Write the structure tokens for this entry.
Amino acid sequence: MRHLAAQLAWPKVKALAQGGALALLPVGSTEAHGPHLPLGVDVLIAEEVCRRVSARLGLEVVQFPAITYSLTDFAAPFAGTISLAAEAARALLEGVLSGIAAAGFSRIGVVNHHLEPAHFKVVHAAAKAVNATVGSIVVVVDHRRAPTGPLLGEEFMHGGSHAGNYETSLMLAAAPQLVDEAARLALPELAVDLPAAIKAGAKSFLDCGGPDAYLGAPATATAAEGERLFELLTTSALAALAR
């Protein structure tokens, strides 16, 4: 059963922690996702994965309020994007994880869906630091790696998966009311090898040839594909949390 920590009184949180409940922390960012998706895409997807994981775990889960701000340099040129320095982002995440551990949770799952490489480094570093200083076990779900990554598709692995088919499909499955259909259907595909662009020195989506803060093919996205992707993300999270 999933419990939302923000809606609980502290005695209930204490009782759940003492009873061995798993704590989940969704992690995302506040950043531009094309002209067709909201700023909170990463947070919404992370929260939805947490919801689906909780439904399949068969144990008590306490989902804490999401981390909504982090390092997001690639979208920094676009209005509404809030980017923290790496040190600030790491300190924020370490503080939250340490607080969850101090509340008595012995196992904490970090479900992140902000895919910027520098941000993911921050997430792993923060978890490692907390694991070294508290008695709790912090597990970071990382769906970029095999076997899950390749199954998420070519765009995810090698293309510009930012606000393209991949993320737009997930949003059509999770929150279709937040997708501007007219805008997304009018967007041409921007076929960009994002990993190669980053290796070549790109520092923003503008450098990658994405003047509207999207890459890939949002017009081809479907809710059915989003459901397929959510199943893979959920299965990946469950496997990581079971280790």
Observations:
- The two ends are 20 Å apart (CA to CA).
- The first helix runs from residue 10 to 18.
